[in-house]
Amino acid sequence: MFKQKSNSINIMADTSNGIIYGTAEVKFKASAGTDKTIGWLDENGMQPAGNAPSFMDVYAAQVTDGPVDSILQNPGSDAFTMNLIQLKAQNLVDIFGGTAEADGSYTPPANFVATGVLTIKTHSGHSFRVFNARLSRNGWKNGLNMQNVFAFGIRVDMLKPADGKERRWRIYPPGVVPDTSDATDDAEE
Fold it and tell me: Could you give phi then psi for residue 102, rounded to 5 degrees?
């Protein structure tokens, strides 16, 4: 069921065609930090990587043509993967920590896991925000050769929000600034 919010601010209707495409910018705000723009991603942008829900079929001896019910065993998960190709030390520090040395070299942390808010701006003008994103190392990608660009793989898991709210993610139409929208509508949820 669709729930319309109403408050004292002017709400602009979404006049886009609803088609979302292209990764224009990805920002990550670690739990104890500020928004940082993640460097360039490879041409694949962000790829879905979650798992479908799983069900256990229930069979009855009296019914021979299929299950009589199914029970949800696992609700599944939502995730993305991305390959960071702009491997500057500061880009890696902004995501996972570690140290950017004065000469530009990078010393990684022992653990490549970070949580915070991830905001994806798209070429279509939409934004997609994950309120409790866990970013983790997803291995090296693309190889070191002349046919590809070496990349640092990152997995983004969409976790249950730590603030107790139901939404794990939100899509914003063109012209809506996530921080402004969240400061009003999310406060009332």
Answer: -60, -30
